[in-house]
């Protein structure tokens, strides 16, 4: 059975400072660093039941995600594969600036939602989704029994959408809620080959 643990990075400075995050390289707060350690402990507890499984760790290359992955490596002694395709949506000139300081046009309720660009220099949902889908396709084809993926709250939507087989063109209205430091568990079914979402946005491990 293939299992994927998807971790969203915990609290970072852009959360507490009211800044647009996305590709802005904020760092984990003290609380975020504590939560990263708690995530690592929880993963260790879960994987102790499968000591024979091969484990791979893949992370977004942004600092706050790498810090989360680093906490995991301290327990698992695993190399980290950094993949910029797992980043959050790019918000162009607004990144690192106060929320609301730059023009933003919400995605329209009708029409071509996937290719709509909401602000200067922003990625469309199409570009964002395609790169996350591509990253996850590579992960699905990896021979590891267990993969830990460290990503961002927004990108979790497309991680799950790709897993359950939603065509990217049909993902224009999909949204899965994600909390900082959450854990989502995906696995395939040994009997029917179904792609299971076993847990979504769990935060029970955070103190």
TrEMBL record:
Pfam families: His_Phos_1. Signal peptide: none annotated. CDD domains: HP_PGM_like. InterPro entries: His_Pase_superF_clade-1, His_PPase_superfam, PGM_Phosphatase. GO terms for cellular component: cytoplasm. One of its GO terms (molecular function) is phosphatase activity. This is Phosphoglycerate kinase. It comes from Enteractinococcus helveticum.
